[in-house]
Amino acid sequence: MKKLLKNTLVLVVALILLVGCSGNGESGDGVQTLTLAHGGALDSHLHEGALKFQELVEEKSNGQIKVQVHPNSELGAEREAAESVQSGSIDIALLSTGPMGNFADKVNALDFPFLFTDHKHAEEVLDGEVGEEISKQLEEANFKNLYWIDNGSYHIATNSKPIRKFSDLAGLKLRTQENQIQIDTVNAFGASATPIPFSELFLSAQQGIVDGQGNSLAVLIPQKYYEVHDYLTVTNHMYSAGMILMNNDKFNSFPEDMQQVLLEAGKEAGTHQREFVQKLEQEYKDTAIENGMEIIEGIDLEPFKEAVQPMYKKYEDKYGEIHKAIQQ
C-alpha cells in the first residue's frame, strides 16, 4: 500500500509538472519553450550540462527558444523520460545509454565491459562514424541525438562487503539498469544482477534489497551514495555514455537556422559537460573518502576481463561489426 501511494504521488506530481510545462508551444511573442528533464541532482554533471545547454540555446536563438530544466527525475525515471521524449510529452532529456537499447538496439553495443581504453577513446568513437550510425537508428525511433555526453566510468560500490578480488563478488546482489548487457556483465562477474530504476535505488541499497551497484563517481557522489555504500572498488569496467536526446518530430518542426542553434548548443554543452566530469573525478574520490567511504584501487582486473569474454562471442552476430570498428 505504501509503495502504491508513493507511486501515485509521483505520478500526480509529474502530471502537475507536465501541465505546468504544457505551454511548450509558441507563445504570443513567438517564443518557444522546451522542457528538458534529467535524473541528476542539482550539483550533478547532468544538471551542469542541462544549465549550459539552456544558456546556450537562449543566447544563440536571441531568446526565441527558452528551456525549462527539470532535474532529480521530476518528470520520471530514465525509462519513463525516454518514453516521454519519444511521444513528445517531454521535448528533451539527458539520458544514459542504459534504457535506450530498448528503443534502438545498437545503443547496447556501447555498454559492453572493458570496451574502451579510456574516455578519450570513447569520445573519438562517439564523435565519429560509430556514433553517427547509432544516432541514425535513434532517429528512426523518433529521437534526435543533439550530442553525446559523459557519465563517467563504472566502478563497483558495495554496502558492507569490500571487493578486493574477483571472487569477493560471488553471490552479491548488484543493481543494474534495465539493460541486458549490464545484466549479463554483473552475472558474468559472479554476482546476481538486480534491475532497479535509479529513482528507487538509494532506498533499495539502504534497505539491503541490493548489496551494491555498478556506477560512476559522477553519479554516486552528488547523490550521496557514501551514506549507504561503505566501499568503492575502482574497476573502470564500463564507460557510461549519455545523450542529449530531443523528440525528433519537435526538432524537425523548427526552421533550419533554429535546428542549427539546437545542434550547436548541444555540442558545446556536451563538450563542457564531458570536461566537467573528468575534472571532478579526483574531487569525487576525495569527497567519498571524507564521508567514510573506502576507495579500493589497484586490484587485479584480469579475472574480470576474462569472465566477460564469452559475452562478446554471444553477441557477435548483433554487435560484432560495431565492436570491430571501436577497436580499430
Main beta sheet, described?
9 strands, mixed
pLDDT below 50 for ≥5 consecutive residues: which ranges?
1-6, 8-23
Alpha plus pi helix count? 13
Quote the beta fraction. Answer: 15-25%
Helix content: 40-55%
N-to-C SSE series?
Answer: HEHEHEHHEEHEHEHEHHHEHH
Structural class category: alpha/beta
Task: Report the mean per-residue pLDDT as an integer.
Answer: 92
Shape designation: globular
Backbone CA Rg = 20 Å
The N- to C-terminal Cα distance equals 53 Å
* Strand runs, count: 9
Please, could you describe this protein's structure?
The chain is α/β, with parallel strands linked by helices and 328 residues long. Helix content is 45%, strand content 20%. The protein contains 13 helices and 9 strands. The protein has helices at 2-20, 45-60, 78-87, 119-126, 129-140, 180-188, 201-206, 217-220, 248-252, 256-279, 281-290, 302-314, 316-327; strands at 32-37, 65-70, 92-96, 143-158, 173-176, 192-195, 212-215, 231-247, 294-296. Strands 1, 2, 3, 4, 5, 6, 7, 8 and 9 form a 9-stranded mixed beta sheet that branches. Strand 5 (173-176), helix 6 (180-188) and strand 6 (192-195) form a beta-alpha-beta unit. Helix 2 runs antiparallel to helix 10.
Features:
alpha/beta, globular, nine-stranded mixed beta sheet, 328 residues, 45% helix, disordered N terminus, single chain
Could you outline the blueprint of secondary structure elements for this entry?
Elements: H1 2-20, E1 32-37, H2 45-60, E2 65-70, H3 78-87, E3 92-96, H4 119-126, H5 129-140, E4 143-158, E5 173-176, H6 180-188, E6 192-195, H7 201-206, E7 212-215, H8 217-220, E8 231-247, H9 248-252, H10 256-279, H11 281-290, E9 294-296, H12 302-314, H13 316-327
Helix pairs in contact: 2-10, 6-12, 12-13
